[in-house]
Amino acid sequence: MGTDNIVTAPFRLAFPAVFVPKAAVQGGKEKYSILMLFPKDGSVLLPAEGTSASEAILAIRKLARDAIVEKWGADKAKWPSNLRNLNLKEHLSTNGKDGWPLVDGDCADFEGAAGHVLVRAKSLYKPGLVNNACQPIINQEEVFGGLICRAQVNAFAYDSAGNKGVSLGLNNLQVLHDDGTSFSGRQAAADVFDAFAAPGAPAAASTGDIDDDFA
After folding, report:
1. pLDDT exceeds cutoff 90 at 138
2. Which of 22, 26, 85, 213 stands 20 to 30 A from 33 (CA)?
3. In 3-state terms, what secondary structure has residue 175?
4. Are 3 and 112 in contact (CB under 8 A)?
5. Which residues pair with 23 in a beta bridge?
6. Cβ atoms within 10 Å of 21's Cβ, excluding its own
7. What residues have CB less than 8 Å from 42, skipping those under 6 apart?
8. pLDDT tens digits, residue range 109-135?
9. Which domains does the chain have, with CATH numbers?
10. Which residues, other chains included, contact 129 with Cβ-Cβ below 8 Å and sequence gap of 6+?
11. Contact 84/164 with Cβ under 8 angstroms?
């Protein structure tokens, strides 16, 4: 069971595992997953699309609440204690371990997370993948952290081995735009190397004696 599917507003993609499933912990069940980053300031990542991050976050909060109500009912007194006292309109989890799926990026330890709300979506089944023209994406090189995307997701409440909360299911992913942002930590090759003349071609002008730097 779970909520109806929704299509999110654009978000920044991080840690995509959409071609090959991965386990969150060693020995765990392998799943396809993405991490969605929505700017806390509510900015619009794609002006042409027009939907703000604030609207996206609110939609996911409502989706998560609907999943709680579906499983445990509308009476908050019957909700699990870890969810019962949360302010669902504002709460951000520090690590996701309290059962709430919206995490404060300021508490995350990877570059680019600060200033964002992080929401993970996952699935046992490979999600559909399309580009901005709705053409299928087959090449794994076309999906990487830093892209602006949107996804079709749903929410479901879980109660397993004493852990209770809400997770998001990943159904489909659309890559919308590459604005040059990368979460890989690597520099672009063109920014690293100088032009190289083939053997026999005139040598590039020297920029000075390297020994001068150590004089």
Report:
1. yes
2. 85
3. strand
4. no
5. 30
6. 16
7. 52, 53, 54, 57
8. 988 899 999 999 999 999 999 999 999
9. 6-190 (2.40.50.140)
10. 18, 136, 137, 143, 172, 173, 174, 175
11. no
Q: Which tokens sit at 203?
A: 């040598």
Amino acid at 53: A
102 and 110 Cβ atoms separated by less than 8 Å: no
Beta strands at 11-23 and 148-160: parallel, antiparallel or unpaired: antiparallel
Q: What does pTM read for this prediction? A: 0.82
Coil vs helix vs strand at 60: helix
The pLDDT of residue 162 is above 90: no
Strand pairing category for 128-130 and 116-123: unpaired
Nearest Cα to Cα of residue 176 among 6, 13, 5 = 13
Report how far residue 73's alpha carbon sits from residue 39's, in angstroms, rounded to the nearest whole number.
31
| Among 11-15, 43-47, 124-128, 195-199, the least confident range | 195-199
Structural contact between residues 34 and 121, judged by C-beta atoms closer than 8 angstroms: yes
